[in-house]
């Protein structure tokens, strides 16, 4: 009897080829598009984001080409509660959130998996550039894609063992060029569709304006720019406009390049310094999710990424008594940003990760 798999189809080439490959491998494939975000219809149409209206139309058309059933399932409530509310609250607390990581675990996996299991599915599948292996210790772990430029393992570190055991990632063994070539050979009309960019629910990139709309009267107040010694340098627009390491758009003229070093919620201050002031060797994180191991048994040497675009750097990690993990880098890393993820790698595999404090 064929195994049944629900493929999350965003209307893009990656998830479309994921469905194609699984059908060729003999699975009973069902396409599902997750309807998550209803605002800014026109902008979403133009940008082709994974939450946009055009996503469902494109996915349905691909499903027709592949001769598989396709459904649109409403996840607006889960998306608002788990992603939108979290995103706004993190900025209001002076942190820089990572909504894609939260969306992956809470909505694209957990919510979709529960609905899929209710439909009688054995697995869910996505078009992520990553692979999943079961290790010799019996645990599942996400493994780097074969294409470093497209690797998406950083955004998947928070998935649970239960989720990984029920997940297929069929395109992780291919390059983007190979995926587009497969789509073209299969006659899929999305073969040349450009990749979506930026956060899907803030397509114009104005995070501060979005947060203010969602803040419910808690609009951040202007405050002081200060230097590392506490001297006032000028006025800022509100802490939601800034992130660690930021140089452009500060709205302050000092006659030299200036960078955001810290955001102090308790005093409503944005600390400005030199580029070298944004570097640190030690990072603390909490909310740690272990993947390749059940937990740390002592200090561990890993490669760690502190943002999606970070190439990774060698460090030693060790769990402290309060459950946080201290990460000591061999060389200073730039712009460690509270609220962002730090992800640990052991070779090709994700060891785990947490949220930077």
Percent range for helical residues? 25-40%
Number of helices: 8
Q: What share of the residues does DSSP label as strand, in percent?
A: 25-35%
Biggest sheet record: 6 strands, antiparallel, barrel
The first-to-last residue Cα distance is 49 Å
Structural class: alpha/beta
Radius of gyration: 21 Å
Mean pLDDT: 93
For the biggest β-sheet, the strand order reads: 12-15-14-13-16-17
Inertia-based shape: globular
Low-pLDDT runs of 5+ residues are 40-48
Task: Give your account of this protein's structure.
With 357 residues, the chain is of the alpha/beta class. The protein contains eight helices and 17 strands. The strands form four sheets. Strands 12-15-14-13-16-17 form a six-stranded antiparallel beta barrel. The protein has a five-stranded parallel β-sheet with strand order 3-2-1-4-7, with helices on both faces. A four-stranded mixed β-sheet has the order 9-8-11-10, with no helix packed on it. Mean pLDDT is 93; it is low at 40-48.
In short:
The chain has 357 residues and is α/β, with parallel strands linked by helices. Helices cover 26% and strands 29% of the residues.
